[in-house]
């Protein structure tokens, strides 16, 4: 639903009952002022453009839009090609700038920054300059990111290298100490003395020429711990066991230089013999993602290497920190102007998107636009066209003209922040047909009232009111923030909740319930106890000693044995009265719809029989309820209504409420029976006669047939198919279904309103249980700890069950009563929204 403020002197007063009168406009815009014109119309936000290129592919649209921007005075092929190339560049640059802005936003989110929420008023920023600036900032940011990634990768590699030097150095050091100890132990033994520890190849080792000894090589590095076992097995199999592998576990996870993620790793050291074994080991390391590092054999060089790596790590750390600071400053600078740039780029994209919807004039000098606008916006649109012509220095002004069409216009209700939420409730069922009666006007009152009938407790109502007042008081601040899904939904319906809370306070005063506790707010009770045991008795134990309690239920009823039967009877009858009243309102609105559209057939053969049928049965029941309340009669209304159908001629006996009741019931029953064929039979024949008369030239007035066929016939007429054949069987079957639905719905809808009684009773009993079985029970123990625990349980139960779950339940039931029981009596909801081209909605997601 397009929302346009009704404030100011430019717009007529807001009217929600009928949608705004709309008109189809045609604008003929000179090419040189097209961009400026569309921009000003977007600022105005009161015209919905039609897509005149719907049959064209995007490629054809783009080509057409590019040609449109070529100056009509450029006749030479070279100039034409140059202008075309400039237009291609202009059209594509907005998409490229939007991509750069998305890149900036992603970078800011990764850095933990957020764009500035405040929007600076739009300054005169040249789009060419903005394009250059965004390109420079993107190049600088990409370069900073690339350098930062390289430095960070080098830093992580040095961290791993340092760990390899430390762990492998420990292995070499321990191996050297072990070898020294073994040599000393061996030297102390006597020559020729052998033991199990004597090396088997000692004689060969001592006798072999040192130049012919096999020299072992080694590879050092780190491998992910999860792959270490497989890494060891593959090494053993590939080299047939001719390697020696030593692994050391790293206590803390390290950042992998390639992936940038923290990974648990092991330092490995593999000793091998021969180049073939070395090549196999290198390939296996690459396959397992193991990082290899050079390692000096000399212990002195190892210590020197560790010191050098530590110094390089310190230098890299300082450089990385400086780069991050510079990147953060750059992103903060971008964030301060991000919203302004984003709005400008979105405006530019939306302008070109709209221009792609326009068609080229046959002279190749003008663009032709068509669109819907409210009638009251005519002067404003003309002023915007004149301003665009002047600002673009165009020699020819835009032409504004109104087209006459049979096409159904869009539906446009001007709402404010209070009425928009109620209109959204109606639109969720279906958008109103053009200028049909809008249920949103009545929903403002009936929806919160029916909710309050089910939720009536002025204590709970005050809690709801305090909660919604928080959103209302801080609405300016909260409206500029990004809220969660549930919070945002609650904030959007803050005025609906406020009305629900106010009506709940009112119905709570009528029910005389404050967290299920009655109060004598408006005077003393009219009854007193006859004796001490009267609270356990029925009303026979009470004596009326004063005037009737002035407002709502007398507090003396609460807590007595007759409380539940009394409130059951009261709320059930009240639910029927409210339901019949709202259904009658729906049928009356169908009369105003038929009168507005000059549809006499619906007045005589839909409105009248429906009113007669509904009120002959359930209107009569409502009358009996009121008479019984006023007279204090003990007549059984169930018996009266049942035998009104089963035995209409029998005497009523003690169930007679007034004289002549039997005769009235016979007349009403006869009227209800007559109303059914009255709805069913005449209307299809009359529609067929109107159709024949119109096509035979005997009637030149537009056919106002059933609401279901009006839209389709208007569409056929607008496309030149006015001689569509009238399908009598389809119309008759449709009327038969409509009649059966109304007759059965009159019963089921009335019964559906009994949910008001059921939910009101459930809410009252739940509140009473929480009060008596939690709060009063904990109070009776005279223990402060039990009292505190009981109070906490009572608060959480009240908030969680009664203020959240019961509120949602009553809301959904009230929603169903409006959508099904009320709106189906008159509301078609087969229209479509007026969605104007406006920059005011540019902040929504694309």
UniProtKB/TrEMBL annotation:
Keywords: Coiled coil, Hydrogen ion transport, Ion transport, Membrane, Transmembrane, Transmembrane helix, Transport. Pfam families: V_ATPase_I. GO terms for cellular component: vacuolar proton-transporting V-type ATPase, V0 domain. One of its GO terms (biological process) is vacuolar acidification. Residues 120-147 form a coiled coil. The chain crosses the membrane at residues 449-473, 494-511, 574-592, 604-627, 663-681, 784-805. Belongs to the V-ATPase 116 kDa subunit family. This is V-type proton ATPase subunit a.
């Amino acid at each position: 639903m397009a929302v346009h403020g009704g404030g100011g002197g430019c717009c007529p007063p807001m009217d929600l009952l009928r949608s705004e009168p709309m008109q189809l406009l045609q604008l003929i815009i000179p090419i040189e002022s097209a961009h400026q014109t569309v921009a000003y119309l977007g600022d105005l936000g009161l015209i919905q453009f039609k897509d005149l290129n719907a049959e064209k592919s995007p490629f054809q649209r783009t080509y057409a839009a590019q040609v449109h921007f070529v100056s009509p005075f450029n006749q030479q092929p070279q100039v034409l090609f140059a202008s075309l190339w400039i237009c291609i560049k202009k059209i594509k640059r907005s998409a490229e700038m939007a991509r750069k802005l998305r890149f900036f936003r992603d970078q800011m989110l990764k850095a933990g920054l957020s764009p500035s929420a405040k929007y600076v008023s739009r300054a005169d920023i040249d789009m060419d300059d903005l394009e250059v600036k965004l390109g420079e900032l993107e190049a600088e940011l990409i370069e900073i990111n690339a350098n930062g990634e390289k430095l960070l990768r080098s830093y992580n590699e040095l961290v791993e290298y340092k760990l390899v030097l430390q762990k492998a150095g420990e292995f070499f050091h321990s191996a050297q100490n072990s070898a020294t100890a073994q040599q000393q132990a061996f030297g102390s033994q006597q020559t020729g003395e052998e033991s199990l520890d004597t090396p088997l190849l000692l004689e060969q080792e001592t006798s072999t020429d040192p130049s012919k000894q096999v020299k072992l090589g080694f590879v050092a590095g780190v491998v992910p711990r999860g792959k270490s076992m497989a890494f060891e097995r593959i090494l053993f199999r590939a080299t047939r066991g001719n390697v020696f592998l030593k692994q050391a576990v790293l206590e803390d996870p390290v950042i992998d230089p390639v992936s940038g993620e923290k990974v648990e790793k092991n330092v490995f050291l593999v000793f091998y013999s021969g180049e073939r074994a070395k090549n196999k080991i290198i390939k296996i390391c690459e396959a397992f993602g193991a990082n290899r590092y050079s390692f000096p054999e000399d212990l002195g060089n190892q210590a020197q290497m560790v010191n050098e790596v530590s110094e390089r790590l310190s230098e890299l750390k300082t450089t990385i920190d400086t780069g991050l600071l510079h990147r953060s400053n750059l992103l903060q600078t971008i964030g301060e102007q991000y919203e302004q740039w984003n709005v400008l780029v979105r405006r530019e994209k939306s302008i070109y998107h709209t221009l792609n919807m326009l068609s080229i004039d046959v002279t190749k000098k003008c663009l032709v636009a068509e669109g819907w606008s409210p009638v009251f916006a005519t002067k404003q649109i003309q002023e915007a066209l004149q301003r665009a012509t002047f600002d673009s220095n165009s020699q020819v002004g835009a032409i504004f003209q109104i087209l006459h069409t049979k096409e159904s216009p869009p539906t446009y209700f001007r709402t404010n922040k209070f009425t928009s939420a109620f209109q959204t409730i109606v639109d969720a069922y279906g958008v109103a047909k053009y200028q049909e009666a809008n249920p949103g006007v009545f929903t403002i009152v009936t929806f919160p009232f029916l909710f309050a009938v089910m939720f009536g407790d002025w204590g709970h109502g005050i809690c709801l009111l305090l909660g919604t007042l928080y959103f209302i008081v801080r609405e300016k601040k909260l409206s500029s923030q990004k809220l969660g899904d549930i919070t945002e939904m609650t904030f959007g319906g803050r005025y609906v909740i406020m009305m629900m809370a106010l009506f709940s306070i009112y119905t709570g005063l009528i029910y005389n319930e404050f967290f299920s506790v009655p109060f004598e707010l408006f005077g003393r009770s009219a009854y007193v106890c006859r004796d001490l045991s009267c609270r356990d008795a029925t009303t026979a134990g009470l004596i009326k000693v004063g005037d009737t309690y002035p407002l709502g239920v007398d507090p003396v009823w609460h807590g007595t044995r007759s409380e539940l039967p009394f409130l059951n009877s009261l709320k059930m009858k009240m639910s029927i009265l409210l339901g019949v009243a709202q259904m009658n309102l729906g049928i009356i609105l169908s009369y105003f719809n038929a009168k507005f559209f000059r549809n006499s057939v619906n007045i005589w053969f839909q409105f009248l029989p429906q009113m007669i049928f509904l009120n002959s049965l359930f209107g009569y029941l409502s009358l009996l309820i009121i008479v019984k309340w006023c007279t204090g009669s003990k007549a059984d209304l169930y018996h009266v209504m049942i035998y009104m159908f089963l035995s209409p001629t029998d005497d009523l006996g003690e169930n007679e409420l007034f004289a002549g009741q039997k005769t009235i019931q016979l007349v009403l029953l006869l009227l209800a029976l007559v109303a059914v064929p009255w709805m069913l039979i005449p209307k299809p024949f009359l529609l067929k006669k109107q159709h024949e008369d119109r096509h035979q030239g005997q009637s030149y007035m537009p056919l106002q047939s059933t609401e279901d066929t009006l839209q389709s016939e208007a569409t056929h007429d607008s496309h030149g198919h006015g001689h569509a054949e009238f399908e009598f069987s389809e119309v008759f079957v449709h009327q038969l279904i409509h009649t059966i639905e109304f007759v059965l719905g009159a019963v089921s809808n009335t019964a559906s309103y009994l949910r008001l009684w059921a939910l009101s009773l459930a809410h009252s009993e739940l509140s009473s249980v929480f009060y008596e079985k939690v709060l009063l029970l904990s109070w009776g123990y005279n223990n402060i700890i039990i009292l505190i625990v009981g109070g906490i349980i009572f608060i959480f139960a009240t908030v969680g069950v009664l203020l959240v779950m019961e509120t949602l339940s009553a809301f959904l039931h009230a929603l169903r009563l409006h959508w099904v029981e009320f709106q189906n009596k008159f509301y078609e909801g087969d229209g479509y929204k007026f969605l104007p081209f406006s920059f005011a909605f540019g902040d929504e997601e694309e």
